[in-house]
Design goal:
heterodimer, A: about 260 residues, TIM Barrel, eight-stranded parallel β-sheet, 12 helices, about 45% helix, B: about 240 residues, nine-stranded mixed β-sheet, 9 strands, binds zinc ion, hydrolase activity (chain A), Metal_Hydrolase (chain A)
Chain lengths: ~260, ~240
């Protein structure tokens, strides 16, 4: 199983959230073993509020503790003049496999022009860009689809499958945008069923959002895994969503996994 | 024995999820849920209120007291809505359900106030679905609750997902507001809502069938390390006390 939505725990301190206590990658890999997760795609948490090269370095270092089990995504402030250069550093020098953005926290709209140079770097590396989605004003699925349509060579991912209120819109966005993928993560069960029934099965992904919890054990991630395992769908589709699709998108066979 | 009482289920044919009374009772048996408050589906919240009220009243009558009906009416109907609530009350309703996102009103535009007053006069709790911006938000519901201190309000979905952050300030603002546990992980959300001085006495369990995975909703309350008294209150004791 590949968990396509995991956060490195917050470093805590003044800029931290959720009273998150930092834990090591090794400790989290032990939790992954218990949860039955083979590979996790890891984003920053602190860096959503304070994106910086230093935080990208920390994510890369955290993941480097277990390179066969953890895959790193970077983030940048898209309005900074060096955003494209830092994107290039993430995907090149740091060996990250993609990018994660949380537009309403990072204060931009997904289809703003400042995302274009970043998407061009991602295209050159064949790297996907994942977005938080499901929340107005600046994280709606069709806003992300608008960017994806400008960059048909870049796979883009709805990181939350529309959440509670936008999963119907997410289905419309994904079915109308060939390079847009959808990660079920916090989508309500009725929405999960509809997404699986109506979206192309080769572009379905699954994620837990682990890392938001204060303790390494992540009880809510276990809950989300139980929910997707019990979801009444074809086993072939479940296998693709939980494993094969993510491997293809991350091109895992080429390097790790 | 702990009473397990589901504070919100929608019965009937919905846009993307449906549930029959037989399916609901079977799920309750499977999950150890004794009783459930049942609302009709979205169509009946939006337009066909009388149909909806009659439908859940009939399901409740056939359930041997396991299912208890919500009444529904549109705040836009004015006087007509009060007549509909009276009819539902005669038919066994014990609570009022409102859904600003489906019914198209603003919690603070004044239109819901006569319904709230009518519910409070009957001693009914009021379930209000929250989480959808811009007009179904926890803090707006808290203001409505402050305006009606004699009524009890259940904050449906507790702002899920990105308005979970508002659920705690909403509980702090209005002491007559109760948080719904549906969709909310215990470690990331519920433990924070139940922390002192609010406390576990302000949380009520619901499965929100058929929109959710009910086994997951129910299992959460066994996984959450809580004292027996707190667990029993959240799973049913508090809701039972809110009913007439
Ligand atoms: Zn996340």
């Amino acid at each position: 199983m590949i968990d396509f939505h995991v956060h490195k725990p917050s470093e805590g301190g003044e800029g931290g959230r959720y009273d998150s206590r930092p834990y090591t990658a090794a400790d989290y890999v032990a939790v992954m073993d218990e949860l039955g997760i083979d590979v996790s795609v890891v984003f920053t948490l602190d860096g959503l509020w304070h994106p910086s090269p230093a935080e990208n370095d920390r994510v890369a270092a955290w993941v480097a503790e277990a390179p066969d089990r953890l895959v790193a995504f970077g983030t940048v402030d898209p309005r900074l003049p060096d955003a494209a250069a830092e994107t290039e550093r993430c995907l090149g020098e740091l060996g990250m496999r993609g990018l994660k953005f949380h537009p309403w926290i990072q204060a931009f709209c997904p289809h703003e022009a400042c995302m274009d140079p970043i998407a061009e770097v991602a295209a050159a590396h064949g790297a996907p860009i994942l977005f938080h989605d499901g929340t107005p004003p600046y994280s709606t699925p069709l806003q992300i689809a608008a960017l994806a349509r400008r960059h048909p060579d870049v796979p883009m991912v709805l990181g939350h499958g529309g959440l509670q209120d936008h999963w119907r819109e997410a289905i419309a966005a994904v079915t109308g945008t060939p390079n847009l993928w959808i990660c079920l993560c916090g989508t309500p069960n009725a929405g999960m069923r509809a997404v699986v029934a109506r979206c192309p099965s080769q572009r379905l992904l699954f994620g837990t959002d682990a890392g938001l919890g204060a303790a390494v054990s992540q009880p809510f991630a276990a809950e989300r895994i139980a929910e997707v395992e019990q979801l009444e769908i074809e086993e072939e589709v479940r296998a693709a969503m939980l494993d094969g699709n993510a491997r293809a998108l991350l091109r895992l066979e080429e390097q790790v996994g | 024995m702990t009473l397990v009482f589901d504070a919100h289920v929608r019965l009937g044919v919905g846009r993307d999820a449906s549930l029959t009374a037989g399916e609901l009772l079977a799920a309750m048996d499977r999950l150890g849920i004794d009783r459930a408050l049942i609302s009709p589906q979205e169509r009946c919240l939006a337009v066909d209120h009388r149909d909806g009220n009659a439908f859940v009243a009939e399901a409740a009558r056939r359930s041997g007291d396991r299912l208890l009906p919500y009444a529904v009416a549109s705040p836009w109907r004015g006087r007509g809505a009060l007549d509909e609530l009276a009819r539902a009350a005669d038919d066994g309703a014990v609570a009022l359900a409102l859904d600003p996102a489906v019914q198209g009103f603003d919690l603070l535009d004044g239109q819901a106030d006569p319904l709230v007053e009518a519910a409070a006069a009957r001693g009914w709790p009021i379930y209000v679905r929250t989480g959808t911006p811009s007009f179904a938000l926890p803090l707006q519901l808290a203001e409505l609750a402050v305006r009606h201190p004699q009524a009890s309000f259940v904050m449906g979905k507790s702002g899920a997902t990105d308005f979970w952050i508002d659920a705690r300030p909403a509980l702090e603002r209005a002491p007559n507001l109760y948080a719904d546990t549906a969709y909310a992980p215990w470690d990331v959300v519920l433990a924070g809502l139940a922390a002192p001085p609010i406390g576990w006495g302000r949380l009520v369990f619901s499965t929100d069938m058929p929109n959710s995975a009910p086994a997951i909703e129910r299992a959460r309350h066994d996984a959450w390390p809580l004292g027996d008294e707190a667990r029993a209150a959240i799973l049913g004791g508090t809701l039972q006390r809110l009913l007439p």
